[in-house]
Design brief:
The chain is α+β, with helices and mostly antiparallel strands. The protein contains 13 helices and 17 strands. Strands 2-1-5-4-3 form a five-stranded antiparallel β-sheet, with helices on both faces. The protein has a five-stranded antiparallel β-sheet with strand order 7-6-10-9-8. Helix 1 packs across helix 6, helix 6 packs across helix 7 and helix 7 runs antiparallel to helix 13. The longest helix has 65 residues. The relative contact order is 0.06.
């Protein structure tokens, strides 16, 4: 049976007052505030959405009405290909006047030939945005030229920036050829009255953000465009220190967008003050109710809290948090014991770190020392023979052996550069070449960018020893290829031979030895390299071996990339 978690006396007092006095009163008041806030929020959202739908619907119906007229006129090529008499001109204006009365919002009509010369216009002068020198490459003409079968919609401002117009246009075609343009222009003032009929504020802009109509400019930038920050936002937002609820929707295939916003700053401020007042009231009540219990229990529980907090710090790994307690003998004893425990833990951790470092260093040195005797014996035996056959070669082998021994017994540095270790390796290969003559071939391909990287000393030589040990067999010629390169954050060395390969059972034993924490076999060379790397580095590094009988063996050595200065 699970025992209940013990709590302090102070917590019991708090819980009693909270449960039977504060919580019910606070819950009722809080629920009342939430209900009021919810009704207000729902009302704001509903009013804003309806305003958006109402204004957007009327504007869309107006645009679609003029669009239908444009569709009828796009086949009237005679308007731009032949001279227009007075009767035709009057008929066009009468049709536009009737359509404007029907839709309730007046538009001006402009008809241009294919050279952008006006042939019919509502005003005596064409607006500046329809007679620019490069009119074909911008504005509504560019949209009509890009898609001759679609209705173009564009918001334009006059040169003085005093008013905006909504342009609706289509090309006039003779068959499939565009021979002219017809454009309706609706001034923003036509819809101004519409905005006053709703309590929300409205912004209408095109797909590029250019504002056509607005009675709120909090959301416009310095160019009088809809600020990009708010183009895609909805819901409750903040702008210029004010709070708004915004509802947006697209019109005419997203070529126009309508934003309706309601300023909720005053309501939010009111709720904020109400909430603050209620909070202050409950803080005062809570303080009064809990003051007595807190005063009597604080002294008794303070030292317990200090000790509990100290142990929590230890659980999080902080061993530098000491405590000082002087209130009573019992708690003082606990505090002193805690401090002694911290000191003991820190001392033991440091001892363990030092011991691990010494053990790793000793193992590395022991493994490194096992490399030298086998190679030394073979080389001295070879020199003895060479002294009888070719003294010059024997002399060269002695010089190379001297350099190799000097390099291997030097303990000045645990790590060397690739360049240094490859120099030693080249001398080793030279000895092998003189020993086996034509029966041994080798090539070395080490990328220059890895030459100054750091590696453990005497790392590559045992790879070659392995190739000699398992590669010759009954083959007349053995070729060993050594390659070194950088692969991401890894330094990779590959020693590949074309020898007799390793028997399946021996290969299995080698792989098992490399994967074992201790070497219980006679295969020392590769295991020593693998163990040195494992002791020195953390990660998936070490030696990998692959071999096929009569095809050769490939040894892959993987190390982390680092320089001696690191």
């Amino acid at each position: 049976m699970e025992k209940n978690k013990p709590v302090s006396f102070k917590d019991n007092m708090y819980r009693m007052f909270l449960r039977y006095a504060v919580a019910p009163a606070f819950g009722i008041a809080f629920a009342g505030v939430l209900i009021t806030f919810g009704f207000w929020g729902y009302s704001t959202i509903d009013i804003t959405k309806k305003a958006n739908e109402d204004i957007g619907g009327k504007i869309v119906r107006t645009i679609e009405g003029y669009e239908q007229a444009l569709i009828l006129m796009e086949t009237c090529s005679d308007l731009v290909t032949k001279p227009i008499d007075r009767v035709t001109r009057v008929s066009v204006f009468e049709d536009v006047y009737k359509l404007s009365n029907k839709l309730g919002y007046k538009a001006k009509i402009y008809i241009f030939n294919k050279d952008y010369v006006p042939v019919i216009m509502s005003n005596q002068e064409v607006p500046s945005y329809l007679k620019n020198e490069s009119v074909a490459n911008w504005g509504i003409f560019r949209l009509m030229n890009n898609d001759k079968d679609a209705t173009a919609i564009k918001v334009m401002q006059d040169m003085e920036g005093q008013s905006s117009s909504l342009l609706i246009g289509r090309t006039i075609k003779d068959g499939k050829e565009a021979v002219g343009y017809v454009v309706f222009s609706i001034d923003s003032s036509e819809f101004q009255v519409l905005l006053t009929k709703v309590s929300s504020q409205t912004i209408i802009a095109d797909t590029y953000g250019w504002i056509y109509l607005a009675n709120n400019y909090d959301f416009s930038d310095n160019l009088d465009r809809m600020s990009r920050e708010f183009e895609t936002q909805e819901g409750y937002i903040k702008c210029n220190g004010k709070n708004f609820y915004m509802e947006s929707s697209s019109m005419m295939d997203d070529r126009l967008r309508i934003y309706t916003v309601s300023d909720v700053s005053n309501q939010l401020a009111a709720f904020k003050w109400v909430g603050l007042l209620l909070t202050m009231m409950f803080v005062v009540i809570l303080f009064s109710l809990l003051k007595g219990a807190d005063k009597t229990s604080a002294e008794s529980t303070r030292d317990i809290d200090i000790i509990a907090n100290a142990f929590e710090q230890v659980q999080e790994g902080n061993l530098d948090n000491y405590i000082s307690i002087c209130s009573s003998k019992e708690f003082q004893t606990i505090g002193n014991s805690y401090n002694l425990m911290i000191d003991s833990l820190k001392e033991q951790i440091e001892k363990n770190k030092e011991m691990i470092a010494h053990m790793a260093f000793a193992q590395i040195k022991q493994l490194e020392s096992q490399i030298n005797p086998h190679f030394l014996f073979n080389t001295l035996e070879n020199i003895r023979i060479m002294c009888k056959l070719d003294t010059a070669k024997a002399d060269k082998m002695i010089v190379n052996l001297s350099s190799i021994l000097r390099y291997s017994i030097s303990n000045a540095e645990e790590d060397v550069t690739v360049r240094q270790d490859m120099k030693n390796t080249e001398q080793y290969l030279s000895i092998l070449k003189m020993r086996f003559n034509r029966r041994f071939r080798y090539s070395v391909d080490i990328e220059e960018e890895v030459m100054d990287l750091a590696i453990p000393k005497l790392l590559i030589q045992p790879l070659i020893e392995n190739a000699i040990k398992y590669g010759f067999g009954d083959k007349e010629v053995l070729t060993v290829k050594i390659r070194g390169y950088k692969d991401g954050d890894n330094l990779v060395f590959i020693c590949k031979d074309d020898g007799t390969g390793i028997e399946e059972e021996t290969l299995k034993e080698l792989k098992h030895t490399l994967a074992s924490p201790k070497n219980r076999s006679s295969h020392l060379g590769l295991y020593n390299i693998h163990k040195r790397i494992n002791l020195k580095y953390k990660g998936n590094y070490g030696v990998a071996i692959e071999s096929e009988p009569d095809k050769g063996t490939t040894l892959t050595l993987t190390l982390p990339v680092y320089r001696k200065s690191n």
